[in-house]
Design goal:
The complex is a heterodimer of chains A (751) and B (70). By secondary structure, chain A is of the alpha+beta class. In chain A, 46% of the residues lie in helices and 19% in strands. In chain A, the strands form five sheets. A seven-stranded mixed sheet of chain A has the order 15-27-26-25-16-23-24, sandwiched between helices. Chain A has a six-stranded antiparallel sheet with strand order 7-6-8-14-9-12, with no helix packed on it. Chain B is mainly alpha-helical. Chain B has two domains: 32 residues; 38 residues, no CATH class. The chains are: A alpha+beta (751), B mainly alpha (70).
């Protein structure tokens, strides 16, 4: 065991109070078959997503699982994906036991979602394409070498001829396989009547290839095959650089990834576990403490506490009575509940919320808006210039017309232009990733720069969902009373009780007798011969004048009410400073699913009090963002929970705030670690300078194009010149963007 | 001089072999995780025979109990 500590200096992770999970549903044959990778007799293999893998010692521990349980045969970790591939013997360890084993050593496993399963295939393909292009580029360069020698050292012309044909054969797979993405996207965009950067690239590639083939076939010239393969190689490098993805993060969770796979159904007084999609309305189901309610249902148990923080952002659990409707997505607190399903999973409130936004980002495939604007005019200009050139030469010297026409297309091929965005944004998004701000696509940087409206969610975004501020109103509490309240609070799992327990940390603890908990109302017990109750106002028998009472905990000792605790949210450190800086550049809006108890505090921080809204349902939030968008505003939404899903998807840029970025977060364009939220204004400024760098890079590549075009239009372009100019322009753009993005990050202390 | 064409073809074949090796490496997933293999090589107890002699890096029964009790 000593090795665990030898491998890494600080291997342990913070132990978290995770809600218990039940895995017994995984032993159902039907569910098991859907999650296992491989199954033969007793030998099974499964890939599990384990977000808490974070260091070399984790790898060691998980790869030594067979010493913890002899049913495990082997396990292998993929660190980048936070994934463990485990082979085990079913006769000795059941899947549910394996999951519990991992949970018990604090590596809580998740069954992989569909989206996670199908990743990585694309990046492999890109690498193969890149490898082929690089291989061909190198060889074609060598084979073209004799062409560049002067006549007195030149080789036998027949050899040169053979070299040319070998180069031509080599270039074929680069054209047809490595470069095929450009042809496909250019064609798709053309069909949708969009002119993208891919179009001039494709025109250039085709022009080079046809012209080279013609020259080689007629022995009239050496062709430009070295330029062609180099061009595709550089373009693919840019693509590969930009395609850096955070495989371990998932940006596209939908509601189903939050739900359990199997549900306990009660039929004819017997419990059975069924897959979630077989749930019918009218079914009786049992949901245990910490589990998520999978479908809209009515309560059959007497009372319940439901934690809706997932859906509404409300930090305090809601009390429900028998017969009340409980929406899917609520988490059960306390003892197991009996529920009657009213709507199937796919038609529930949560699923509807998700479905509403479907067709949003159809432009997602595009690299960047700016680049598309530029390339649209660029393409038109190039087509005009090349046709004018052709016409001019047709008039004066028709033998040169074809040459000049193709030369313009070749030299104008916007390789450097196409590389500017991938390198600038790719580099910038890596730097942001190092600062725990992860972008789904690097083009989101451009969205950030346009932002003029920032909408914040309050609960969980500006406040820390795990910490509460507790104050007390009523009769003064002495140490003894504080101690008995603490003793009672310790017995309950309710979040408010936990907050109270933390608040009273300096008090003592006594023995608790006759502990009783009424779900969704309060708790009582005998402590040191006093009968003590804490809970809602009605539970301890007083009338409350305040409408919103859920954040208050009333206390009575020996049936005499003595006062109440007010439990409020705890704001993240430096949130005021962050809001102040953001408001210099953009209008800030604040939406809260909570009550307006904190209106005064917030009004002081927000420039325009009209932008402050309380009691916002998830749909209200979405509608609010929609309204801003309709007024031609560019909206960035910052939110954390499922309650913000609609708004996050609706906004131009949706940023999910997560305390642990590897845990599930709602679908969004970017994920920011809660600790780094304070840096959001810096990130936005950094994005703006990245965009400025792109403009400069576009300028540089235009300069090269103008020089090249001069030679092309006058019909003087020779292969050597093209072979030097094209890589030179690409290389200088790459170096310029990388260095200046780095410098800009250093200046802002992001590196 | 014609021998050069043979040399070029031979060198191309060697290069193709390496290209094939690269593609094989990509397809077999060797570029997917660039971190754990570098750490895994330092674990000295993958071989079961070695385990018996090297008690230091074995999870002892005692340690297993501690770990599972957490």
């Amino acid at each position: 065991m000593g090795t665990y500590y030898d491998i890494n200096n600080a291997p342990g992770i913070r132990k978290k109070s995770t809600t218990s999970e039940y895995y017994d549903y995984l032993d159902q044959d039907e569910i098991k078959a859907s999650v296992l990778d491989f199954h033969d007799g007793d030998t099974c293999r499964i890939k599990l997503y384990i977000p808490s893998i974070h260091c070399s010692s984790c790898i060691w521990l998980i790869e030594n699982l067979q010493h913890l349980h002899k049913g495990v045969i082997t396990s292998t970790v993929n660190f980048n994906k936070r994934e463990a591939s485990i082979t085990y013997n079913e006769a000795q360890i059941k899947l549910s036991e394996l999951m519990n084993l991992l949970s018990s050593i604090n590596y809580k496993p998740h069954i992989k979602t569909e989206e996670q399963k199908k990743s990585s295939k694309k990046s492999r393909q890109l690498l193969v394409k890149l490898g082929i292009a690089g291989f061909v580029f190198g060889n074609v360069m060598l084979l073209s070498f004799p062409e560049y020698l002067s006549d007195d050292v030149a080789l036998n012309p027949e050899l040169i001829e053979a070299f040319k044909w070998i180069s031509w054969l080599l270039a074929l797979p680069v054209m047809l396989y490595s470069g095929n993405d450009y042809f496909i996207t250019a064609w798709k965009n053309l069909k949708r009547k969009i002119i993208s950067i891919d179009l001039p690239i494709v025109l250039g590639i085709i022009a080079i290839f046809l012209r080279s083939t013609y020259e080689i076939a007629t022995s009239s010239g050496p062709g430009y095959l070295d330029s062609l393969t180099g061009l595709i190689f550089f373009l693919l490098i840019g693509k590969w650089y930009q395609a850096k993805t955070y495989e371990a993060l998932s940006f596209d969770n939908d509601y189903s990834s939050y739900f359990p796979l199997g549900i306990t159904r009660i039929k004819n007084n017997e419990e059975e576990i069924i897959p979630i999609n077989q749930l019918e309305s009218g079914d009786l189901i049992s949901v245990r403490n910490g589990e998520i309610i999978p479908a809209d249902a009515s309560l059959e148990s007497i009372g319940a506490s439901i934690d809706y923080s997932f859906i509404t952002g409300e930090s305090v659990p809601v009390r429900k009575q028998k017969g009340d409707t409980i929406y899917a997505g609520g988490r059960v607190i306390g003892s197991a509940l009996l529920l009657k399903v009213e709507k199937k999973v796919e038609t529930g409130y949560l699923a509807e919320l998700w479905k509403e936004r479907t067709d949003k980002k159809s432009s997602e495939s595009m690299l960047s808006l700016t680049l598309n604007m530029v390339s649209k005019y660029f393409t038109i200009a190039i087509l005009i210039i090349s046709s004018l050139t052709a016409l001019y030469w047709l008039w004066f010297d028709s033998s040169k017309a074809l040459l000049a026409f193709t030369s313009v297309l070749i030299i104008a091929c916007p390789c450097a232009l196409a590389l500017s965005v991938p390198f600038a944004f790719g580099h910038a998004s890596r730097i942001l990733g190092k600062n725990h701000f992860y972008l789904k696509l690097s083009s989101i940087i451009e969205g950030l720069t346009k932002t003029d409206q920032v909408v914040f969610d309050k609960t969980g975004t500006l406040t820390d969902p795990d910490t509460f501020k507790v104050s007390y109103e009523g009769e003064e509490l002495d140490h003894f009373n504080r101690s008995i309240i603490k003793s009672l609070a310790h017995q309950s799992r309710h979040p408010l009780s936990r907050a109270l327990y933390q608040h009273l940390s300096d008090a003592d603890e006594f023995e608790v007798l006759d502990f009783k908990e009424l779900e969704g109302a309060g708790v009582e017990a005998m402590i040191m011969n006093h009968n003590i109750k804490i809970g809602s106002a009605s539970y301890i028998g007083i009338e409350s004048k305040i409408k919103q009472e859920s954040a208050r905990v009333y206390v009575s000792i020996d049936d005499k009410a003595i006062g109440h605790f007010v439990i409020t949210n705890y704001y993240r450190p430096e949130w005021k400073e962050m809001l102040r800086v953001v408001q210099k550049k953009a209008v800030v809006h604040l939406l809260s699913g909570d009550n307006d108890a904190e209106r005064e505090i917030l009004e002081r921080e927000i420039a325009n009090a009209d932008n402050l809204h309380f009691y916002q349902s998830p749909k209200d939030k979405q509608a609010y963002v929609q309204k801003l968008k309709d007024n031609n505003k560019f909206v960035t939404m910052v939110g954390d929970g499922m309650n913000d899903v609609g708004a996050l998807k609706e906004a131009h840029v949706g940023i999910a705030v997560a305390d642990d970025v590897y845990q599930f977060s709602p679908s969004s364009d970017a994920i920011i670690s809660a600790k780094e939220l304070i840096k959001l204004p810096v990130f936005i400024n950094f994005a703006k300078s990245a965009l400025r760098i792109v403009y400069l890079a576009i300028g540089i590549s235009f300069l090269y194009n103008v020089v090249g075009l001069y030679f092309a239009v006058t019909g003087q372009l020779n292969p050597l010149f093209a072979a030097i100019l094209m890589p030179l322009s690409s290389a200088s753009v790459v170096v310029f963007t990388s260095l200046s993005v780095m410098w800009s990050a250093k200046k802002r202390r992001l590196l | 001089m014609e021998i050069i064409i043979v040399l070029v073809i031979a060198s191309l074949l060697v290069a193709l072999l390496f290209l094939w090796l690269f593609i094989w490496a990509v397809k077999s997933g060797q570029y997917e995780d660039d971190y754990s293999p570098s750490v895994r090589i330092l674990f000295d107890n993958h071989d079961n025979k070695e385990l018996k002699s090297n008690t230091k890096s074995k999870i002892t029964d005692e340690a297993r109990d501690v770990l599972l009790r957490q």
